[in-house]
């Protein structure tokens, strides 16, 4: 059965509901509707509460939805305390921060992206200029840096001292077969110790908005997988993977393991689900089920066969309905609607187990 057929979607949703897989958080998220589009609706990953507030305020003041979501994520890109995005993001295995971002403007169906961009705090703003001032959609690496320089972006060292210390701990601890040795007396920087105990982090910010007129835009921006192979590009700058906007349907974006999202054209899959009649949250869950189904590598499976990683999708429909879903329980997303800015629970496929595997 083609699971992109409307019949397939309806059967699948009914089966899931009948099997009791739809948790209370799914049901509540799937009924999230703005009473009317009297104001903007903006969704973001949980690290984007300031982004949703800023974007909503700009749209209320008449700004274009793309300018609004970019201004929103710029706050997080410039925040040295967020180790997953922009300035202060965790570096690649060589200790160099490389940023990925893309933007998509619903009313004009246009898109722009940069990948593996070094030294520029706000890759989302560079992605918008790629969209507006070139005949291309994506520019990467050294070319992206030269392009940003040409447009007057300031170059800075994106590696904050905190991110450098986390990277150094990773470097000294991840192998006992190299020449990097941890200090005899560990420092008491508990925050970096906690972070480096995680094998990898995929933190990212996605932000999508719809205006009262029904115009949509979205942006995704990230420092990508921590300690990645230099030049590794995730889903965030790839149109259709980390972001997709269709002004007749809605906007969707992702965070989490980019490799899984790229292989399933994740955000485009969410939008196609909505186009075929699914609610935003049902479409997010459907795309996550496809990821689970297509993750065949044993090294990515827990003992029970479920994925070892997480992915989250966020979506807003043209009519203001919104939702988000994760593979694992416990996640939240930021949303501005009906004049309120808040975190709401994501729907999910699996209850997160208490014990560590
Ligand atoms: N989703 C962010 C990344 O994989 O780079």
List keywords for this structure.
13 strands; 11 helices; five-stranded mixed beta sheet; 357 residues; disordered N terminus; binds glycine; Glutamine Phosphoribosylpyrophosphate, subunit 1, domain 1; alpha+beta
Task: Please specify the SSE layout and strand pairing.
Elements: H1 6-18, H2 24-30, E1 41-45, H3 49-60, H4 65-77, E2 99-105, E3 110-117, H5 123-133, E4 138-140, H6 141-150, H7 161-173, H8 190-197, E5 204-210, E6 216-222, E7 243-246, E8 250-256, H9 258-263, H10 266-275, H11 280-294, E9 311-317, E10 322-328, E11 332-337, E12 340-345, E13 347-350
Parallel strand pairs: 3-4, 10-13
Antiparallel strand pairs: 1-5, 1-11, 2-3, 2-6, 5-6, 7-8, 8-9, 9-10, 11-12
The chain binds glycine (GLY).
Glycine binds at residues 202, 204, 222, 224-225, 234-236, 255-258.
Give a nutshell description of this structure.
The protein is of the alpha+beta class and 357 residues long.
